[in-house]
C-alpha cells in the first residue's frame, strides 16, 4: 500500500435502521499517519459510522475500504487478518475484569500470534511503558483509576502494532486534566508509531487539540470535513451552532448546578438587597 492510499476510504455510504435513514451519502478518506476526528452531536451517527468502519454493520449502499481492501467483499479469514492490523480502544476500556492488566494486554498476542511467552511478556511490558503504565501488569483492572483503564485499553489496542487505531470517546468520563493527558497520549502514539488514528468524540477541546482533520456529522450527513482552523472559522450556521453549544455548556457554574439539583435556594446573604434589608 503506497503512502497515497487512504487508510480508510468511505464512498457514498448509506445506512438504514428499519425505515430510518441514519447515514446519508457519507464519503471520507483518512490518510496514513493522520489523526481524523469524527464529531457531532448526540444521535448524529458517529457510533453507526464507527461500527461500519469496524465491519460490524453492513451498509444499505456504498463502499468502505480499509487499508486498501473493500471490507464487504472479504472472506471471513481475510476479514480476521485485516482486524489484526486494526486496534480499537473502546469508551469503557473494555478490559476483562477477571484478568490482570498484563494478561488483558497480552490477549491479542496469545490469540493471533505464535510468539512464545517470554516475547509476549517483553512486548506487553513495552506497550505498558508506551502508555506510561510501566510496572502495572500484575494489577487487576478494578485497581486502576479511570484514566489508567483508558491507558491500559490503548496498550491493548496497539499491542499488535496496528496501522489503524480507532478510539471511541477517549475522554468520556474523565476530568479535564486526565482527559488532556489522554489527548497527549494519542498524539504521542501517532508520532511514535505513524499509524492513522480515528477518534469518535463530542469533546470539542479534545478535537481541536489532536485533530489533523475533522469530519462533522449532523443528522447522518457530513456537514463539514476540514482542518481545525477551517472548521473553527467556518461561517456555516449549523457548524457554528455545534461549536457554540460547547460555549453554552462551559458557562454553566457547576456549583450552582449542583445546588439546583439538590433543590437548595440560592444564597443571598451577601447581596446588596440583603444588606439594605438588614439581613
Ligand atoms: N440499533 C438501532 N436501531 C435503531 N435506531 C438506532 C440504532 N442505533 C442507533 N440508532 C439511531 O440512529 C441514529 C444515530 O445513532 P448513533 O448512535 O450512531 O449516533 P451518535 O452520534 O453515536 O450518538 P451518541 O453521541 O449519543 O452516541 C440515532 O437517531 C439513533 O437513535
Explain how this protein is built.
GO terms for molecular function: ATP binding. With 279 residues, this protein is α/β, with parallel strands linked by helices. The chain has helices at 46-53, 76-83, 101-112, 117-130, 146-157, 176-193, 204-210, 228-232, 237-250, 254-261, 272-276; strands at residues 8-17, 20-30, 35-40, 61-66, 69-70, 86-89, 164-168, 196-201, 213-218, 221-227. It has two domains: 8-85 and 164-234, P-loop containing nucleotide triphosphate hydrolases (Rossmann fold); 97-161, no CATH class. It is built from eleven helices and ten strands. A six-stranded mixed sheet has the order 6-7-8-3-9-10, sandwiched between helices. A four-stranded antiparallel sheet has the order 2-1-4-5, with helices on one face. A hairpin with a 2-residue loop joins β9 and β10 (221-227). α3 (101-112) packs across α4, α3 (101-112) packs parallel to α5 (146-157) and α4 (117-130) crosses α5 (146-157). Adenosine-5'-triphosphate (ATP) binds at residues 17, 20, 22, 40, 42-48, 202.
Structure in a nutshell:
With 279 residues, the protein is α/β, with parallel strands linked by helices. It is 40% helix and 23% strand. The protein has 2 domains: 8-85 and 164-234, 3-Layer(aba) Sandwich (Rossmann fold), CATH 3.40.50.300; 97-161, no CATH class.
Amino acid at each position: 500500500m503506497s503512502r497515497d492510499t487512504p487508510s480508510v476510504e468511505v464512498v457514498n455510504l448509506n445506512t438504514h435502521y428499519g425505515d430510518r435513514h441514519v447515514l446519508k451519502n457519507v464519503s471520507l478518506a483518512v490518510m496514513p499517519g493522520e489523526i481524523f476526528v469524527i464529531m457531532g452531536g448526540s444521535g448524529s451517527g458517529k457510533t453507526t459510522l464507527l461500527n461500519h468502519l469496524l465491519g460490524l454493520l453492513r451498509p444499505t449502499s456504498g463502499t468502505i475500504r480499509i487499508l486498501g481492501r473493500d471490507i464487504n467483499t472479504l472472506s471471513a479469514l481475510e476479514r480476521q487478518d485485516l482486524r489484526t492490523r486494526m486496534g480499537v480502544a473502546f469508551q469503557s476500556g473494555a478490559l476483562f475484569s477477571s484478568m490482570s492488566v498484563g494478561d488483558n494486554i497480552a490477549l491479542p498476542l496469545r490469540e493471533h500470534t505464535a510468539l512464545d511467552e517470554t516475547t509476549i511478556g517483553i512486548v506487553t511490558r513495552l506497550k505498558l511503558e508506551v502508555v506510561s503504565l510501566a510496572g502495572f501488569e500484575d494489577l487487576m483492572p478494578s485497581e486502576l483509576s479511570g484514566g489508567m483503564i483508558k491507558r491500559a485499553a490503548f496498550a491493548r489496542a496497539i499491542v499488535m502494532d496496528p496501522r489503524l487505531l480507532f478510539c471511541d470517546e477517549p475522554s468520556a468520563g474523565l476530568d479535564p486534566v486526565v482527559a488532556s493527558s489522554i489527548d497527549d497520549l494519542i498524539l504521542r502514539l501517532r508520532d511514535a508509531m505513524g499509524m492513522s488514528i480515528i477518534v469518535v468524540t463530542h469533546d470539542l477541546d479534545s478535537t481541536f487539540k489532536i485533530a489533523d482533520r475533522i469530519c462533522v456529522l449532523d443528522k447522518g450527513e457530513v456537514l463539514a470535513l476540514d482542518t481545525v482552523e477551517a472548521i473553527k472559522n467556518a461561517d456555516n450556521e449549523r457548524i457554528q451552532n455545534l461549536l457554540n453549544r460547547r460555549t453554552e455548556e462551559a458557562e454553566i457554574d457547576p456549583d450552582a448546578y449542583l445546588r439546583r439539583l439538590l433543590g437548595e435556594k440560592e444564597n443571598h446573604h451577601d447581596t446588596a438587597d440583603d444588606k439594605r434589608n438588614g439581613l
